[in-house]
Amino acid sequence: MSAILVYISTTGGKIKRSSLEVLSHCRDQATKNNMELAAVVLDNDAAAFADQLQQYGARKVYTVSNPIFKSHLNAPVTQALLQIIEQVNPRVFACASTEGTKDVLGALAAKTGGAALPDVANFEVTADGVSALRPVMAAKILSQNTASGELVLVSVRSGSYDATESPTVADVTDVAFTPADFAAVLREVISSTGDKVDLSEATVVVAAGRGIKDEEGKKLIDDLAETLGAAVGASRAVVENGLFPATAQIGQTGKVVSPELYFAIGISGAVQHTAGMSNSKVIVAINKDGDAPIFQMASYGLVGDLYKILPLLTEEIRKAKSA
Amino acid sequence: MKFTVCIKQVPDVYAPLQIKNGELSMDTDRMVLNAYDASAVEEALVLTEQHGGDVEVVLIGPDKAKETIRKALAMGAAKGHHIHVEDTHGLDSAAYASILTAFFEKNPTEVIATGKQSQDTDSGLAGSMIAASLNLPYAANAVGLHIDGGSSLVVKRQGDTGQEMLALPIPCLVTCSNDMNNPRIPSLKGIMASKKKPVETHTLEDLGLSLATVRDSVKTSTISYQEMPAREAGKKLEGDAEELVSSLMNLLQNEAKVI
Amino acid sequence: MDDKFDCIIVGGGIAGLSAALTLAKNNMKFLLVERGEFSGAKNVSGGVLWGSRLADLVPDYWMQDAGFERYVRHRRLTFLDEQSAFSIDFKSDHFNEQPYKGLIVLRSKFDNWLAGKVEEAIAESSFPEDSFIAPNILVDKILMEGGRATGIKTGEEEFHANCVIIAEGVNNLLTRQVGLQSDYVPADYMATGVKEIIRFDQSVLEDRFQLDGNSGLTNEFIGYASDGIEGGGFLYTNKDTISIGLVLNLKSMRENMSQDKKIYDVLTHFKSHSAVKDMLRGGEVVEYSAHVVSTGDERALPKELYTDGVLLAGEAANLLLNSGKAIQGMDYAMESGILAAESVIEAKEKNDFSKTTLSSYRKKLDASYVMKDLRSFQSAVQFLHSEEMFTSVPKVVNEFGRSFFTVDNKPTAKTPAMLKDAVSKHSSLWNMIKLGIKGARSL
Ligand SMILES: Cc1cc2nc3c(=O)[nH]c(=O)nc-3n(C[C@H](O)[C@H](O)[C@H](O)COP(=O)(O)OP(=O)(O)OC[C@H]3O[C@@H](n4cnc5c(N)ncnc54)[C@H](O)[C@@H]3O)c2cc1C
Ligand SMILES: Cc1cc2nc3c(=O)[nH]c(=O)nc-3n(C[C@H](O)[C@H](O)[C@H](O)COP(=O)(O)OP(=O)(O)OC[C@H]3O[C@@H](n4cnc5c(N)ncnc54)[C@H](O)[C@@H]3O)c2cc1C
Ligand SMILES: Nc1ncnc2c1ncn2[C@@H]1O[C@H](COP(=O)(O)O)[C@@H](O)[C@H]1O
C-alpha cells in the first residue's frame, strides 16, 4: 500500500497545531485513496509524541530521538527525513509550513528527486500525484498547481484545515539515528522572550502596525492582548523599528495566521501584510485613516485614534470577561 | 570574499492584475528585481565594502531581463551573468535550480546568495535545492550576515520562535530575507557606471544543458489561476471613541460571538 | 570634461521622452532623469494623445505591440442636465487610417513603452554607453553659473551639460528656480483633474461601446458633470477599462464648492447621472488618481521658453489647450519636446548654447500648431470658462432635446418655437445669441 508521510513539527514539548491540521487532512486523503497514513517526528524525546499521533489517526509512527533536535539545524533534519523517506517510500510527504520546514523542503526535493509544492492552501492526492491551490502574487490570487512523479512534497499553510481526532492504534518505530558530521556550526540560539502565546497557534491575535509609535503604544497592545489571552503580532514596519520582535511579523515575509479573531491596530493593510492574515475569521481594524485598505477586508472597522480607543476597549473587554 | 547573488526578474505585484480565462494578465508589463534578491545584493555589497571581495550576479531569463541585471550593477555589483532563456514559461524552482547548479559547477564562487523566495510565487525552494545539489552547507531565511575571519560566514536566521546564529564554512549558500536590510536605490553615478560593467551571456548549451533537459527537470505545473475568495464586506464604524468601543463590544459579543 | 553631456533632460514624461528620442536618433550624448520608479509611474492622464506625431518618432508603431490602448474612431460630446443627455456623435472610418489621429493611452504603460524606445535608440546611437535614462532620481536643482545653466544637482551629486531641457510637468518648481516662471501662478489658470479607471469584461466593454478591434470612443461631457463648477467630464475607452474623470477649475472650485465637499464627491455626482451610470454598469473601480493640470490660459505661460542653457518643454511651460472638445497636453508635450531637442542639436552644431541660439526653439514653436492654436483658441478657452457654458447651455440644449424628441398626443410645436421656449426657460435669448456669436468665433 502506498503511503502519505506527515512530518510533525514540535515546539516546547508540544506538537504544533498546524502539524495536527495537516495530519488530519492527510488522514482523510489516505482513506479516500486507500493509502496508509504515517507520521514522523524528530525531537530530543520523540517517542513522547507517539500517543497523540495515534489519537489523530496515524497508522505508522516513526520517532527519531536525538539531542541534536533540541534546536533547529537543517542538516540533521534533512538527514533524518531522508532516512525515513527511504524507509517508508511514500507517494506524498506533507508537513505544516513553518520556518523549520521551509528550511528543508527544497533540499529534500533535490535529494529525493521529488516534486515540491510549498505553502499550499489546500491539496488533494490524485491518481498520479497531487493537485493544490497556492496563493501567489502576494496572496492576491490563487494558482492551481499539479505535481506528479513518484514522490510529491507539500507544505501546508497553517489554518487551512481543522485538526480533528480519530484514534487508532499505530505501529510505532523508534528509528536509530546517527547524525553525520555537519559543516555548519550552531553558535547561538536567540529566542524571543515575552511570547506568552504562540502566534501561529493563537485563536486571538492582536497585531500592531506603524500607528503604534512608542513604548506607550506597545503597552496598549500588550494590555489588550493580555486581557484577551491573545498572541501579539506585528507588521513589518514596527518590527523594523525595533518595537516588536521579528517572530511577531505577520505577512508575506513573516508568519501566516488564521485566528478566530484578528485585531489590526494602526496597520494600513498592504498586500504583503494581508497575505499573512486574510484567512482570519473575524477581523477588527482600528485606523484613523478611513481610506486605509485594511477596511476593505475588516469585519468591523473602527475609524479613529488607537491611543484613545485601546484603553477603553481593553477596559470593556476586562469587564465583559469578569462578568 | 566572492559573492554570487542569484537574482530573478519578477512581475511587479503592485501592478493591477486580473485573470482572463484562467490565465494571469498584468495591465503593465512591468518587471522588477525580486525584493528578496535585492536584499541579498545589498548585503553582499555591504560585506565586500567592509571586508573586500567581489559581488557578481546571475540571472536566468529573456533578453528583456537584462534590465534587472543592470539594476544590480547600478547598485554596485561588479559583473553580471545572463543565462539566456527566452521562453521561461512553465519553468519552476526545480528547473531554475538545475540551471543554476550547472552554472555554479562551471563558475565556482565562495558564497552563493539567493532570495529567500520569489516575490511573485513565494516558492522559496531554489536556494536550498541548489545547496543540496552542490552539497553545500546552507542557511535559509537569513536576517543578518557577517564574515568571521576569512573562512566562514556567520548567518543569523529567523526561525519559528527566535533566531539562530550559524557559522557556515565557505563555500556555502545563504537565502536572504528582506528583513535583513533596506536595499540601496542606485545613485545616478551607479546607473551610469552600470552600463560599462561586463555582462557575460551564457546559453544553456554553454552549461551543458538544453531547453529539453531543463523542461525535463520541471516537476510542477500551473494549471490555472483563480480569484481569491472575496471577504464579505464588513461594517465601518465612525464616531467618538466611546461610541466606537461600545458598538464594537456589542458586535463582538452578539453578532460575531467571539467574546 | 569627458563626462559632460550635450544635454540633460529633467522629467521622463511625454515631453522629456520625446526630446530624448529625438536626441538619441541624432547621436547626442544625453542624460534623462526621472524621479518616478520608472517612466509613467507618477503620471496621471485621462488619456488621448492627439495627432499623428508619434509616427515620426516611432515609425509604424501600430505594427508592434505598442503601448497604447485604443485608437480614436468614435467621438462624442454630451450636454447633461439633471435628467437628460444630449450628444453630438461622430464616428468615421476615416479614423481607421494609419497613422491614427488620436490614441487612447494609459500613461503608466505608454510612458514605460516610450522609454523602451528611447533605450533602443540609445543602443543604436554613437553613445550606447554614455547616454542614459535614469529613473528613481529626483533633480533638486538646476546648476547655474553666471546666468546660464550648466547642469543639475541631485542629492550630493552634480552632473554637467551644455544645456538642460526642463520637462518636469505642471509642478514647475525648476522652471521657477531658473526664473522663467513667476513664483506665483494664479489658481485661475490652473485646474485639477481626477480620474478613475473602471474595469469591465473586455467583451462587455466592446459590446457596450460598439468597439471593433482596437477602435475606441472618446466622450466629453458638459453641464451636470461638473456640478456647477467650471470644467467638464471625460470618458475614454481603454482595452478593458475606461478612464472617467473631470477637469475642474481651481478658482471656480474654491468659489462654488462647499467646504466639506471633496473633488471626489463631484466625480461621484457625475457618475450618478443616469446616462453615465448606464455606461458604467457592472464595472469595478480599480484605480483613482488626482493631479493638477493647466487650463491652457495664455496668461499662465512662462515669461519665456528658454534662457542661456535652458529650454522648457511640455506642461512645465504650461503648454496645454483645453478647447472643450479635447484636452491637448500630451501632443503639445511631444511636439515641444521634439522641437526643443532639435534646437539643442542645432546649438551643438554651432557649439553655442546661449539664449541667442536657443531662441530658435521659440521660433519653431511659434511656427508650429502649438503656439498657433494656443493663441487662436484663447477665445475658446475663455468661452469655455463663461459660466453659461456649464450652467445654462446644457440645460437649454436638453430642454430643447426633450421637446424635440418627445412625441405625445398633443399638438407639436415647430422647432424654432421649441428652441425659443427652451432658451427662455433657462436663460435669455439675448444671452444665448451673445454666447452663440462668441462660440462661433472662438472655435
Ligand atoms: C517583498 C516584501 C515583503 C513584505 N513582507 C511583509 C510582511 O511579511 N509583513 C508586513 O507587515 N509587511 C511586509 N512588507 C511591507 C509592507 O509592504 C508594508 O510596508 C507594511 O506592511 C506596512 O506596515 P504598517 O501597515 O504597519 O505601516 P503603514 O503602512 O505606515 O500604516 C500605518 C497605519 O497606521 C495608521 N495610524 C497612524 N497613527 C494612528 C493612530 N494614532 N490611530 C490609528 N491609526 C493610526 C495610519 O493611518 C496607517 O494606515 C513587505 C514588503 C515587501 C516589498
Ligand atoms: C486628469 C487629467 C486628464 C488629462 N487628459 C488629457 C488628455 O486626454 N489628452 C492630453 O493630451 N492631455 C491630457 N492631460 C494633460 C496631460 O496629462 C499633460 O499635459 C501631459 O502629461 C504633460 O506632459 P509632460 O511630459 O510635459 O509632463 P508630465 O507628463 O507631467 O511629466 C513630467 C515628468 O517629470 C518628472 N519630474 C518632475 N519633477 C522632476 C524632478 N525634479 N526630477 C526628476 N523628474 C521630475 C515627473 O515624475 C514626470 O514623470 C490630462 C491631465 C490630467 C490631470
Ligand atoms: N530565473 C532565476 N534567475 C536567477 N535566480 C533565480 C531565478 N529563479 C529563482 N532564483 C533564485 O532563487 C530564489 C528563490 O526562488 P523561488 O524558489 O522561485 O522562490 C530567488 O530569490 C532567486 O535568488
Detailed description of the structure:
With 323 residues, chain A is an alpha/beta fold. Chain A has helices at residues 17-33, 50-55, 74-88, 99-112, 215-228, 236-240, 271-274, 306-322; strands at 3-8, 10-11, 14-15, 36-43, 60-65, 92-96, 115-120, 122-126, 129-136, 141-148, 152-156, 171-174, 185-191, 204-208, 231-234, 261-265, 282-287, 300-303. In chain A, the strands form four sheets. Chain A has a seven-stranded parallel sheet with strand order 7-11-6-1-4-5-12, sandwiched between helices. A five-stranded parallel sheet of chain A has the order 15-14-16-17-18. In chain A, strands 8-9-10 form a three-stranded antiparallel sheet. In chain A, helix 7 links the parallel strand 16 (261-265) and strand 17. The mean pLDDT of chain A is 95. Chain B has one domain (2-216): HUPs (Rossmann fold, 3-Layer(aba) Sandwich), CATH 3.40.50.620. Chain B has helices spanning 35-51, 66-75, 93-106, 126-134, 188-194, 211-216, 241-255; strands at residues 2-6, 9-11, 17-20, 23-26, 31-33, 54-61, 79-84, 111-115, 138-148, 152-158, 162-169, 172-176, 199-202, 220-227, 235-238. In chain B, helix 2 (66-75) crosses helix 5. Chain B is globular, with a radius of gyration of 22 Å. The relative contact order of chain C is 0.15. Chain C is globular and about 85 Å long. Chain C has 443 residues and is α+β, with helices and mostly antiparallel strands. Classes of the chains: A alpha/beta (323), B alpha/beta (259), C alpha+beta (443). At the A-B interface, helix 3, helix 4, strand 7, strand 9 and strand 10 of A face helix 3, helix 4, strand 9, strand 10 and strand 11 of B. Strand 10 of chain A pairs antiparallel with strand 14 of chain B. One flavin-adenine dinucleotide (FAD) sits between chains A (209-211, 235-238, 249-254, 266-268, 270, 272-273, 276, 286-289, 292, 305-307) and B (35, 119, 178). One flavin-adenine dinucleotide sits between chains A (209-211, 235-238, 249-254, 266-268, 270, 272-273, 276, 286-289, 292, 305-307) and B (35, 119, 178).
